[in-house]
Request: fold
Amino acid sequence: MSSTRIVKVLRPITFGLRRVHRMGSGPFSRALLRSVAVVLCLCAISSNLACNKSRSPTDPGSANCGIYPDQASSPYVLPYPVGSSHQVIQGNCGSFSHQANSVNQFGYDFAMRLGTEVTATRGGTVVVAIEHRPENTGQYGDENIVVVDHGDGTYGRYLHFQTQGALVDVGDAVSPGDPVGLVGLSGFTVGPHLHFDVSMGCYEYEPRCPTVPVTFRNTSPHPNGLEEGRSYQAVPYS
Ligand SMILES: [Zn+2]
Reply:
């Protein structure tokens, strides 16, 4: 599906969801999240991707889409506080904006309510902290984003924060579990969620930097990456 077609298809759905929000229905229910998972997973990086690459008939989707590093020794923890649990509404090689063979195929989308605190998955230094962009525009490029340099050529990228929702500044050192931002509706998204991925070699979206597979050591086993549709609880880590 071309990116143009995706936008055409989703625009009316976007309006529908906004109407639901205006009606005061509060945070999206899990059932609704599930039913519109594909819609909610619209992320910044989807709009200009080579979305016309078709998936192989044998492509299993969110599972087995890459070689994943060992979970027990992973330097990464889930991007939310210990004790909390969130559903993956789009996994790696997801069906919508994390397509297989695209540069962002290893992105994860977590369903989170507005204002949910997002925490660092790994220690490093903040190299991007953008929080001035408006919300509810649905526009690619309006993302409020935090990027953490892990010091080994990889970068953790956290997207769609609230306006004024970055909790760190450029140059800050962060450790796993430190708050980095608050979930919002900035950028190319129609529902509150966190997009998290790890890029390699660079962190820019223009030109686009490739993402790499990661696992998280403080949750249940996921040898093929976190699975779309499942919820994962963050358990204590050392
Ligand atoms: Zn995403």
Observations:
- Residues 3-233 form a domain with the Glucose Permease (Domain IIA) fold (CATH 2.70.70.10).
- Residues 1-62 have pLDDT under 50 and may be disordered.
